[in-house]
Specification:
The protein has 6 helices and 7 strands; from the N terminus they run αββαββαβαβαβα. By secondary structure, it is of the alpha/beta class. The chain has one domain (8-208): Rossmann fold. The protein has a 7-stranded mixed beta sheet, with helices on both faces.
């Protein structure tokens, strides 16, 4: 496990931000429904059932802010949350496997890609990766697209509590080696566990830096 690179002041400022209000703004099913670009934004992307909604809930200390389910594909739109009037958190539909029709999946994929390509206030995309499995081809597709559109992104490993340290170290080495080939990728990895609340303070500090 890596040590925090943030100061106590960074961690405390981020804690205060996330301890304040965090309100659901709207769910967006088409680009013409997007809210005004009044705040900076960070988005959470990942394969279906990677734990996006659980992580958003854990970050904000709210059990029901984002919907969670054991059924992949429950997040069916771009869900915008206003964090303390400082930044939008955007929970994206899961890509990859989901128990929906091919037509619905295609619509989700187009919505995600169009949003990631064209939102001027989008500061960073957090690509969530299940620590047990590492990068998949669908993750690489999103990474390639973000490289092409010069949208910065960071890798966040989820469910690290389900892995042994040796496995985590191996996964991190493999991902870091791959990140060197991607121009828009930040060359670091954040390890998290929503269940154990591990890594959340650092991830809050990273998000706070974008406000």
């Amino acid at each position: 496990m890596t040590e925090s690179v943030f100061t106590d002041e960074d961690i405390e400022a981020a804690r205060k931000l996330f301890a304040g209000s965090c309100d659901f703004v709207m769910g967006v099913a088409a680009l013409n429904q997007l809210p005004d670009a009044a705040l900076q934004e960070v988005a959470f992307a990942g394969r279906s059932n990677v734990g996006k909604s659980s992580l958003v809930n854990a970050l904000t200390g709210r059990n029901t802010l984002a919907r969670t389910s054991h059924t992949p594909g429950r997040t069916q739109q771009l869900n915008f949350f206003n964090l303390g009037g400082a930044i939008f958190l955007v929970d994206l539909p899961g890509y990859g496997y989901a128990k929906v029709s091919k037509t619905q999946k295609k619509q989700w994929d187009h919505l995600i890609r169009d949003y990631l390509r064209g939102r001027p206030t989008l500061r960073c995309v957090f690509i969530l990766i299940d620590a047990r499995h590492g990068l998949k081809d669908s993750d690489r597709e999103i990474m390639k697209m973000l490289d092409e559109t010069a949208v910065s992104y960071r890798i966040v490993l989820t469910k690290t509590d389900k892995c042994k340290n040796e496995h985590l170290e191996k996964i991190q080495r493999a991902i870091l080696a791959e990140l060197k080939k991607h121009g828009a990728a930040m060359n670091d990895i954040t390890l998290t566990s929503a269940h154990k609340e591990f890594g959340l303070a650092d991830l809050r500090a990273i998000i706070h830096a974008y406000t």
